[in-house]
Amino acid sequence: MVDISYRSVVCMMVAIVMHGRHLSATIVSCEESVPLALRKPHQLTAHISLDHDSKFLVSRMWPLKDKEWYLRHWQTGQWNHREASDPPNTDPHNTSSNTDAFPDNSNSWKHSEFDTNVITDEDMQEALSYGIDKFRDTEKTEKTLYEKNIYVPKDSSAYRHQSFRRFSPMSKMLSTMGIIMDYSTEAMSKNLKLSKEVLTVDMILLEQRIFCEPEMLRPEAEPCNASSPYRTPDGTCNNLENPLWGASFTPHRRVLPADYGDGVSTLRRAADGGELPNARFVSTSVNLQTPRRSSCMTMLFTTFGQFIDHDLTFTPITKGKNGTSIPCCTKEVTQDPSLLHSQCAPIDIPVDDPFYGAYRETCMEFVRSSPAHRCNFGPRDQLNELTSLLDVSQVYGSTKNVTEDLRTFTDGLLETQLSTNGQELLPPSTDMNEDCNTKEQTLQGKLCFKAGDVRVNEQIGLAVLTTILVREHNRLARGLKQLNPSWDDERLYQEARRIVVAQMQHITYNEYLPLVVGPGIMKSLGLLPQGDGQHTEDYDPTIHPGVSNEFASAAFRFGHSMIPTNMLEVKANGTTTAQSLNSVIFKPFAIYTSGFSVRNVRGQAAQSVPVVDTLFTLEVTGKLFRMKKQFGLDLVAFNIHRGRDHGIPGYNAVRRACGLPNVSTFKQLAKYFDPQILRIIKNIYRSVNDIDLFVGGLAEKPVPGGLLGPTFVCLIADQFLRLKIADRFWYEYKGSSGSFTTDQLREIHQVSLARIICDNLPKISSIQRWPLEVTSAFNPVLQCSSKCIPKFSLYHWRE
User: If both were cysteines, with which of 234, 378, 416, 549 could 203 make a disulfide (CB 3.0 to 4.6 Å apart)?
Assistant: First the structure.
């Protein structure tokens, strides 16, 4: 007989397979069996069933092959060759392989060998001269726009979108060579009548180092110190053999070769060579006017996902002279095509649009992502300004300059400002050119905040979570100072940072990721934390940790579907207030108010968010960044258009790369998509090969225990597997000079988001055991003093 006393219920730990048909529960008394209770419920499930598609996924060789594998096979004419390292295909029902990621009826991807020796030096010189001339024309356009004061209106949502995505001077410099090589490759294509396959596959073999002067390239990493126990700020030297792998200001990795309309840089086109359906039309069509279903996730889950995203990826968009915004839809530009910037790709809005039609809006501003630097011909890539590793760069920064700007250089502390009640807040951003700052708030002594990532003010819950992590760093630094009075500022800072990074890695893989991809995938791919101080030995220096373009541009944007219309605040007495989403975007000033952060976290932890599907709130499909107007931007249309901008292959190509069965007709998608959304998708797209990855990924039915369908699960699992096994400083890895001891790691293994919140929001007093999931009998609200929320001790860091 199990004791069902109140004490036992409060302390129980339950293994739940979310969304599955079977519910299994293991009751564990926290008082009697603390080590077992430290683990996340998903890890207590002994047997996790996988559906058919999940079995396809886990049978693959992981990590997935990436762009270089495909190109190597194409270039050598060994497209049907299976490498010795490839796993044998033992499933008689699995007819896919890593060698058939593109539809058989797509003639543009049937590659035949091409001899690049037929291209002469004169051909290349002529193309490069053309590229340089075209780049100068672009510079002239930017100068004209600047001198004539032609900008995106400052009271518009487009201005806010472009201004908050601040452009680093480094990105501007690096993109120069990318743009020149885009134009040069286009010229080569026209002059020599090269096919799309040759442009995509073979042209990258042609390098022009003479045109890539050192000052035009990302600086090489300084000599690596293999014995250093600490990460570099910019991610360099994590991989000692390839010091720039995972570093900031490097190109995104690709799962598949790019699929541009012209093979070089123009937006992806349909399989028949025609235009893909209008991005805004797709957005409104798939966003069915039906009630949105609630998930078992909280708003804190959505915010946490955004927080992780801002640790991994930031792709800059093109800016004009002196970092000014680029207008694509203004009257001056539409009436004088000579003023249209080469990187403009505005989204046309149908005249009968169900929302924008009432405001007579027919054009949505859209500027293309800036190209990454390269010294070879071939297709465009995009730049990632952040480190690709889970190193909490959204708190600490991704460059040495940003990192140093956020430090006090005293006792290892991060810079903060104190609120009126003495609580640490993020430091103020004194840049009045930042769109977030307003004269009205500045006169009241309230400025927007600065952190390791420039988007910290985008959503007030994000600013609150970042504040909590800064407080955690300083709490640890002070504790380490007490334990080790002889440690200097640098040692205290680096050790506190090392612990915070480990804590966030553990929480991400223990509490967040299992909810996204499902416990079955987590267990099968070895993504679950070890627990109880156990180390791993699976670091692999041959694996590239870079964030893939497919992940950044589509898969990890799934959280946009989970954004609610309102955000809640909950007072200590349970009183609830709600604010519309756009009323808290770029308005973080309430954080200065005593007690707000606690009310915000209570609200986020209490609020259930929608399930992942193709439905979205109007707050993001028509009112995003609307400022004082009645309308704003459409984030869904932006995501679809951005995928085409980046040359992301269609949904069907990506699912094949994941090893999922190929589909050649819409009818074959019936087992993967909801019938209603499938009918709409069939009416939108002419071919299954045209479906945009963002749309197809969201339309899939979720895998058992996860939030997403198999294609997005594939991309996200692949990325997080790389972030684990390709990180030399991974918190559980024991082969690094910075590895934790067994006792230290045991402390980290018991860390939870609930404990981080309790330790840094002292007035919150209680929270559910797993704050990313809604409160239930199996996830009760506990007092912060409860032993079911184990405390983190620094005792084992005493030197």
Answer: 378
Q: Give which of 472, 418, 338 is closest to 752, Cα–Cα.
A: 472
**Higher confidence at residue 512 or residue 210?**
512
Side-chain-facing half-sphere of 414: CA atoms under 13 Å: 31
Give the pair of three-digit tokens for residue 148: 């004539």
Q: In this structure, what CATH number is given to the domain that contains residue 36?
A: 1.10.640.10
For the chain, first and last CA: distance in Å?
48
Q: Which residues are catalytic?
A: 310
Shared domain check, 701 and 615? yes
In this prediction, residue 493 carries a pLDDT of 98
Residues composing the chain: 799
Residue ranges making up the domain that contains 371: 116-217+316-384
**Residues 6+ away with beta carbon under 8 Å from 247:** 218, 221, 234, 235, 236, 238, 387, 388
By CB atoms closer than 10 A (0-12, 13-18, 19+), residue 775 is middle
Whether residues 309 and 392 fall in one domain = yes
* Tokens linked to 125: 């010189």
Number of structural domains the chain divides into: 2
Structure tokens at 575: 């009183």
Whether 70 and 140 map to the same domain: the answer is no
Q: What is the pLDDT of residue 433?
A: 74
Helix (H), strand (E) at residue 641: helix 635-645
Instruction: Please choose, from the candidates 633, 635, 589, the residue with its C-alpha nearest in 3D space to the C-alpha of residue 156.
Output: 633
Q: How confident is the model at residue 55 (pLDDT cuts 50, 70, 90)?
A: confident
* Residue 799 to residue 445: CA distance in whole angstroms: 42
Q: Which of 563, 582, 577 is nearest to 639 (CA)?
A: 563
- Rounded Cα distance between 561 and 617, Å, is 8
Question: What amino acid occupies position 411?
Answer: D
Q: Please give the average per-residue pLDDT across 110-136, as a whole number.
A: 86
Q: What are 220-231's pLDDT values in tens digits?
A: 778 999 999 999
Element (H, E) at 405: helix 400-405
Q: Which of 357, 384, 411 is the last residue of a domain?
A: 384
